[in-house]
Design goal:
By secondary structure, the protein is of the alpha+beta class. It has helices at about 20-40, 50-80, 95, 140-150, 220-225, 230-235, 255-265, 270-305, 315-325, 330-355, 365-380, 385-400, 405-425, 435-445; strands spanning about 1-5, 10-20, 90, 110-115, 130-135, 155-160, 165-175, 180-185, 205-210, 240-250, 430-435. The chain has three domains: about 1-115, Trigger factor ribosome-binding domain (Alpha-Beta Plaits), CATH 3.30.70.1050; about 125-140 and about 275-445; about 155-250, Chitinase A, domain 3 (Roll). Helix content is about 50%, strand content about 15%.
Length: about 450
């Protein structure tokens, strides 16, 4: 077997693989012999099917499978042995492949088009410093968080007249179509600002008329109010009359031990001062996630802005079109290509950093990524045995591997491990800011 590589540009090349009879015949003969022993053919006893009969029935398909498998392995091995920075998949020359004479040929030749990233190096010491913002939650933000928690764990009470954030229950009618919706529920917090005046101050027994499509911003909210699907709600039209039967609001929960336990878990706080301190920690953790995300973004931007990698754009667009088999048009590929190319460059840089610095991924790293997602799902709540439950759920998720979960969490864990290394290798400048200042910086960074 002969393999010849012709580099046609800095980012493209052609790989030609020639296969002779000596390369494939031993394995083809071996498989035909196996078939004579295992094939179930009418008129022959098991294990007694003549070789010539098997050759006539299955010889061509065995030959094709073996040659294609042999060529594929050789292509992958050549790429690995020669450390080619291949991007996308090798694309076979289908026109040449269609001319292969499987019936009479003894030697076969295949050609593949390769796309490659240009050579590049990663010198982390030459990169500019990046800023890590530490956000300090103000007392107002902590108070705001506590008020939100009080509303979340508050109790529903009936009130006399409608105000903002109330739930108004009643009957919705349209005389012209004889449509009637009993138990309609209008959340005034969801009502459009320019329509709230219609409901403000209404009392039990009051009636009001309005254009049904003028009340909410979207069909989803109207669907909630009428108990209909979004599609059904979107189809409603014209003037309706609403009669108020009941008005409720959520009274904020008292700041007491019951609220402490519901919001934080048992025994996390025993007085208002401790409760406020714990809420401040949670607010700070939320801010830390935002600042960490911005730091990750800044580190990746520093890498991408300072490490030049040329990609075979024409090849990659053609490859993306082929592998998606009609799911996307050429216009779709062109529209999203810049984002794809950015991600691909980042993957190449991450792999180079990992290779240069001995960064290896372990099973525990992947497992921890699954567990972190599950902890985030449970939020601030905790109870005895939760860690064990999460561990078992995470292991089961990886074992079942639904929707390619292993690959997904592996990619996340690898990216996280590289980012953690970068935080020790790059120059990081700390800066303390207030929330409003951070938000302004974020708007500029993500613009």
């Amino acid at each position: 077997m002969e393999t010849i590589f012709d580099k046609t540009s800095a980012t493209t090349g052609r790989l030609k693989v020639s296969v002779t009879q000596n390369d494939y015949k031993p394995e083809v003969d071996k498989k035909i012999k196996q078939y004579t022993k295992t094939a179930q053919v009418k008129g022959f006893r098991p294990g007694m099917v003549p070789r010539e009969y098997i050759q006539r029935l299955y010889g061509k398909s065995i030959l094709v499978d073996e040659v294609i498998n042999l060529v594929s392995k050789n292509v992958n091995q050549y790429i690995a042995d020669n450390k080619l920075r291949v991007v996308g998949d090798p694309m076979p020359d289908n026109e040449l492949a269609s001319k292969v004479d499987w019936d009479n040929g003894k030697e076969f030749a295949f050609e593949y088009e390769l796309g490659m990233a240009s050579d590049f190096g990663v010198d982390l010491t030459s990169l500019p410093a990046v800023t890590d913002y530490e956000i300090e939650p103000s007392d107002d933000k902590v108070t705001e968080a506590i008020e939100d928690i009080r509303r979340r764990f508050g109790k529903s009470i009936e009130v006399e007249e409608v105000e903002k954030e109330d739930l108004v229950f009643g009957t919705l009618k349209q005389e012209s179509t004889e449509t009637e919706v009993k138990d309609a529920t209008i959340s005034t917090g969801r009502v459009r600002e320019d329509a709230f005046h219609i409901f403000k101050g209404l009392e039990k027994g009051s009636s009001v008329k309005f254009d049904i499509q003028s009340i909410f911003e979207n069909p989803k909210d109207l669907g909630f109010a009428t108990g209909k699907s979004e599609e059904e709600a979107a189809a409603l039209a014209g003037e309706f009359e609403f009669t108020v039967e009941k008005i409720t609001k959520v009274a904020p929960a008292d700041i007491d031990q019951e609220l402490f336990d519901k919001a934080l878990g048992p025994d996390k706080a025993t007085n208002e001062e401790e409760f406020r301190a714990e809420i401040k920690k949670i607010v700070k953790e939320n801010y830390d996630r935002e600042s960490n995300y911005m730091l990750d973004f800044a580190m990746e931007k520093a890498l991408l802005d300072n490490i030049h990698i040329e990609l075979p754009d024409t090849f990659l667009k053609k490859w993306l079109l082929n592998i998606n088999e009609g799911k996307f048009t050429e216009e779709d590929i062109n529209k999203d290509y810049d984002a794809f190319a950015r991600g691909l460059r980042m993957d190449l840089i991450r792999n180079e950093i990992a290779s240069n610095n001995g960064i290896k991924l372990e099973y525990e790293d992947i497992l921890e990524e699954v567990k972190a997602e599950m902890r985030n799902y449970f939020g601030a709540y905790s109870y005895e045995g939760l860690d064990e439950v999460i561990d078992n759920m995470a292991r089961k998720t990886l074992q079942e591997n639904k929707d390619n979960a292993v690959r997904r969490y592996t990619d996340r864990a690898f990216g996280k491990k590289v980012r953690e290394f970068l935080k020790t290798a790059l120059t990081i400048e700390k800066k303390s800011v207030q929330v409003d200042e951070f938000n302004k910086i974020a708007e500029e960074v993500y613009a």
